[in-house]
Amino acid sequence: MNKHAIMSYLLASVLAVAGFIGVADSPTVQAKASAKDYASHTAKAAIDFGVQKKYLWLDSKGNFYPNSQITQGQFIASLVAIRGLKEVAPVPQLPAGHWAKMSYEKAQKAGILENVKIDPNRLLTKEETALLVFNTWKPYRGEKSPNLTNTGALVTWGWMKPAPNGQPKFREDLPVLRSDAAEILQFMWQDKWQLEQGRKYADEFHKSLKVVNGKITGKVPKGDGNFLIRAMFITNGDGRNGFLNNESFSVSVSTVKSLTFQVINSKDSGIAGGYWYPKLPKFDRENRTKKFYR
Length: 294
Prior knowledge:
alpha+beta, 5-stranded antiparallel β-sheet
C-alpha cells in the first residue's frame, strides 16, 4: 500500500471510529457551519445535496474530506439512508455496539450485501462500489447488462465517471473518492424520487380510467412541470392516438386494442414510469418502467 493509500485508510478509520460518517440509526453530527474543505470542490453541489437530504454527513467543523477514499461502511450507511430501510437481518461478522452494525443489518435484509465481503473499513474501488449500487437498486431498475462489469454498466448508465483519458474507460480497480461517491449517491436519490413520482402519476391516471357508453374515458395527470406525461392508444389499424399532460380523453372501445402510459423526465428524458394496458377495455396493466440497459 502506498503512502497516499495508507494516509487515506488511517483517516477513514479515524472518521469511522468517531462516528463522523453519520450512521442514520444513531446520534450523529450534522454540521450547520458552512462547508470548509469542499467549498471550491467540483462536487460541492452533490455534497450539499446529500447533506440536505440526510444521507451524507459532515464533521463538527463542516468538513467532508472529499479527496479521501470512501470506505465500505460509509457508503453502505448512505445507501441504507437513501433507501429508507427499516427491516434487519443478522450480520454476525460485526460485534454488538459496532458503529455500522445497524446499517449492515438493514443492508443485509435488503440484499445489498450479496457477493460482498463485509469489512466496514475497506477502501472501495470502482467495481466494489458499482456492485453495491446495483445490489441496492435491483428493486428499482432490475439487473444490469450481463455483458458489462459492474463498473462498465454504471459508467454506461452515466452514474460513474469513466477513467481518465489514456486509460481503459471501464478500469475497475481505480479508487472511489468521497466526492465521487457523493455524485453517485445524488444520481440514486434523484432516480428514486423520479420513480416515486412516476408511480404517483401512474396511479392517478389508472384511477381516472372508466368505460362509459362504449367509450374509454380518463385524464392524463397535469404533473408539476418536471415531467412529460403521455397516454397513447394503439388503434385496431396500428395507428396512434395520444394525449399529454392535463388532457382528458374519450375514445371508442371498438377502435382501440391497447394503451401505453409514460412519465418522462423533462430534463434528461429518463423514464420515470411506463405501463401497458394490453387487453382493453379491461384495465389490467403491466409495469414496463425502464430497467437498466434493456
